Amino acid sequence: MKTKIDRVIEQYPASVFKNRKEHVLVRNTEAPEPQTITANTRTIPGIITNRGCCYAGCKGVVLGPLRDAVVLTHGPIGCGFYTWGTRRNKGRTRGDEQNYLNYCFSTDLQEGDIVFGGEKKLRKAITEAVKIFNPKTIMICATCPVGLIGDDINAVANWATKEFGVKTIAFSCEGYKGVSQSGGHHIANNGLIKHIIGTGDKAVGKYSLNILGEYNIGGDGWELERLLKKIGYDIVSMMTGDGTVEDLKSAHKADLNVIQCHRSINYIGEMLNTKYGTNWIKVNFIGVKSTIKSLRDIAKYFDDPDLTARTEAVIEEELAEISEKMEQYRKLCQGKTAALFVGGSRAHHYQYLLRDLGIETILAGYEFAHRDDYEGREVLPFIKEDGDSKNIENLEVEPDPKHYKVTLSQERYEKLKEEISLNYYAGMIKDMPNGTIVIDDLNHYETEELLKILKPDLFCSGIKDKYVAHKAGIFSKQLHSYDYSGPYAGFRGAVNFARDITMGLTTPSWKFVTPPWKIEPMLEGSYVGSPVVKSQEVIGKNF
């Protein structure tokens, strides 16, 4: 396996080879020392990356799914459309609540605005939004040109708050900040904790939870909500799929935070723990066995026999509903192999669901992970901060004298840390079988070559790289928007995923697809003074 990786990256120049070598490892469960991998570093110039920008992480991932806030992109229309039209953050209105998810708000900066400044246009856009939609909250997200020309979006936000009485928050999330969308997650998390969380006083029920890092792609969040409410939990807020600013205001009052996507929202998890004493546990509701474990871990935290009994009853009921179908799909999927390259925690989470179906993951990697996403949080003290990381404010919070609470004795806390993932994430590598390839920031060239060598039956990826698999005649499942299917979370979601994967793996269509470049030439050219020749005619000729 090691030689297979070398065959791919040895084509690079020496300096690039050395860099990429540090971003790849083969899982060795017998290694004398914990395996390490380089992550969250700048992509090498000239290499096409699948990462998103800082703005995409802030607006597109964290803030965009909030249904009751006007999230205004201050920048060119293309930036606004990118974070609006490519994700499936479902949201539904309850009663007379506001819902702006179907709209794309942008200042549509033009060349003249870049030359003369865009603050005037931003004020006009806010004025129009207030007049037409009357929102309670406006969030301004800056893009690259805004940072370059120096528009003071914070001053405009302060003006709008005073002028209209509408809470207006500015996020300086210019795309070039940080090395990927992860920097934007951090900026959004900082803004929510500074300006929103802790400002509300909504009454919460017994066994209250915040669900962090769930963005309701394809309705995942609704399925989790159904399952948890069925057991008896009170969902205070969802961060941020189908979430609201109104709910987030009282998030500090929840008994426990459960974190689905570690990378996008772990900052808030940590800050809520420090400021309000709210513990968090890492959960995974992707896959049958992982969902069962997550439900049992949450129940174990509350240590209530009645809650534990209800949890087991719900698990039994849900399994009875899906077991027969899952077994049917498993028989058809057993023995297949998969490669995963997805953002967030999905490259880790979906390995569990694939195992439920008898599918072996032979390669996995993240688009924008940090080392702790791979190796676990124990490496955090040893991660060196680089120049790009310093562009993002590292917000320091202190215990809130009014709302800080201690919910566990020290003895109980230590016991739970041994039993569940309390305030801890072990990372992806430790969960992977021996010989599995782990690769960070996989690019198109590496994707194409590794697919040729490994020949997986299934490639799970984002939007930008699925076409590499299509070209190779490999079934590709898009896990950023679920190819317009879903939900895939929880018990019922597992059946939906199993159905979609089985249909893709068992169809013969991929074997009949002939890429157009195999039929017609992609290029035409001519020698000086010679007739036009087709690309096939000049293959192998020296120019």
Topology at a glance:
Blueprint: H1 2-9, H2 14-21, E1 24-26, H3 54-63, E2 69-74, H4 77-85, E3 105-106, H5 111-116, H6 119-133, E4 137-142, H7 144-149, H8 153-164, E5 167-171, H9 182-195, E6 208-214, H10 220-231, E7 234-240, H11 245-248, E8 256-259, H12 262-276, E9 280-282, H13 288-302, H14 305-333, E10 337-342, H15 346-356, E11 360-366, H16 371-375, H17 410-419, E12 437-439, H18 444-454, E13 458-461, H19 466-471, E14 475-478, H20 490-506, E15 524-526, E16 532-534, H21 535-538
Parallel strand pairs: 2-3, 2-4, 4-5, 6-7, 6-8, 8-9, 10-11, 10-13, 11-12, 13-14
Antiparallel strand pairs: 1-12, 15-16
Q: Say what oligomer this is.
A: single chain
Quantity of strands, as a count:
16
Let me know the average pLDDT.
Answer: 92
CATH topology of the largest domain: Rossmann fold
Q: What's the overall geometry? A: globular
Percent of sequence in beta strands: 5-15%
Helical coverage, percent range? 40-55%
CATH architecture of the largest domain: 3-Layer(aba) Sandwich
How many helical stretches? 21
- The parts where pLDDT drops under 50 for at least 5 residues are 535-543
CATH superfamily of the largest domain: Nitrogenase MoFe cofactor biosynthesis protein NifE, C-terminal
Can you tell me the number of structural domains?
3
How many angstroms does the end-to-end distance come to?
37 Å
Strand order of the largest sheet: 1-12-11-10-13-14
From the alpha-carbon coordinates, what is the Rg to the nearest angstrom?
A: 24 Å
Largest sheet: 6 strands, mixed
- Please identify the top-level CATH class of the largest domain: Alpha Beta
What structural category arises from helix and sheet content? Answer: alpha/beta
